[in-house]
Design a protein that fits this description.
With 261 residues, this protein is α/β, with parallel strands linked by helices. It has a single domain (8-185, 215-242), classed as Rossmann fold. Helix content is 42%, strand content 14%. The chain has 7 helices and 7 strands, in the order βαβαβαβαβαβααβ. The protein has a 7-stranded parallel sheet with strand order 3-2-1-4-5-6-7, sandwiched between helices. Strand 5 (132-136), helix 5 and strand 6 (175-181) form a beta-alpha-beta unit. It is globular, with a radius of gyration of 19 Å. The chain starts with 7 loop residues before the first strand and ends in a 20-residue tail after the last strand.
Length: 261
């Protein structure tokens, strides 16, 4: 894809899981990456694995001081900033029973921290000729899920923030989009028990049209596209990269043929 080589990216939540898989893909595509996460051991191991194009900066999204240090590190090490990938999130909740502090904590990580990161990153992004921000949504922000109140609310809010940010930052040449991924395979799935593996396979069959788990690389490729020059007229969008998960209705993949006469 055009317009990526040599660009500088910050990836929140980049030390493990989906974030780490994306970081590997970004470095392979020629980006310089700053991994922002609270998981120090995993983050430093990943940076060591990927070499000088990747560095780790311990970052708690609830701390303004950490956000300032993150952006200063990107500037000092790589002399700029082009892309923000806001991947980090917390799933910590108790549904209906979530306390006020519990609501605050999840929103502080999933939404407020990323909103403040965008705000603080603007003085850096305005100097880029290809500035792009990619937030991460979820099917949870579009459907009802038993026992989940807080996380889905943050993801619905992320999409609205994406639209508002896209409008406000357009005249500064900064594009803002979101990605809605599906059910992603994890390294731990390879070592799951037979019972767990069957359950995971069953979920994959039910939750998308391809009947398989998604890879982090597939999500990363979509994120790179949104930052590339091929997507220069795309902003304020939420791109579903979910194998058709959100397009499936209540009947799933069952065939219901209406009767004639």
């Amino acid at each position: 894809m055009e317009g990526l080589t040599g660009k500088v990216a910050v990836v929140t939540g980049g030390a493990s899981g989906l974030g780490a898989g994306m970081v590997r893909s970004f470095v392979a595509a020629g980006l310089k990456v700053v991994v922002a996460d609270v998981l120090e051991r995993q983050g430093r191991l990943l940076a060591d694995e990927l070499g000088p194009a990747c560095i780790f900066q311990r970052t708690d999204l609830r701390s303004d001081e950490d956000l300032d240090a993150l952006l200063a590190t990107a500037q000092q090490r790589f002399a700029g900033l082009d892309f923000l990938f806001n991947v980090a999130c917390s799933y910590a909740e108790e549904g209906l029973q979530t306390s006020r502090s519990g609501w605050h904590q999840v929103f502080d990580i999933n939404l407020f921290g990323h909103a403040l990161l965008i705000q603080k990153a603007l003085p850096y992004l305005v100097h880029s000729q290809a500035a792009s921000i990619v937030n991460f949504s979820s099917a949870s922000g579009h459907i009802a899920q038993m026992g989940r109140w807080v996380y889905p609310a943050t993801k619905a809010a992320i999409e609205q923030m994406t639209r508002s940010a896209a409008l406000e930052l357009a005249d500064q040449g900064i594009r803002v989009n979101a990605i809605l991924p599906g059910l992603i395979g994890k390294p731990s799935h390879e070592y799951a028990s037979e019972e767990a593996a069957q359950r995971i396979a069953g979920l994959a069959d039910r939750f998308n049209m391809f009947s398989r788990l998604q890879t982090a690389e597939e999500v990363a490729e979509a994120a790179l596209f949104l930052c590339s020059s091929h997507a220069r007229f795309i902003t304020g969008a939420c791109l579903a990269v979910d194998g058709g998960y959100t397009a499936l209705g209540p009947q799933g993949k069952e065939r219901h043929v209406p009767r004639r006469g």
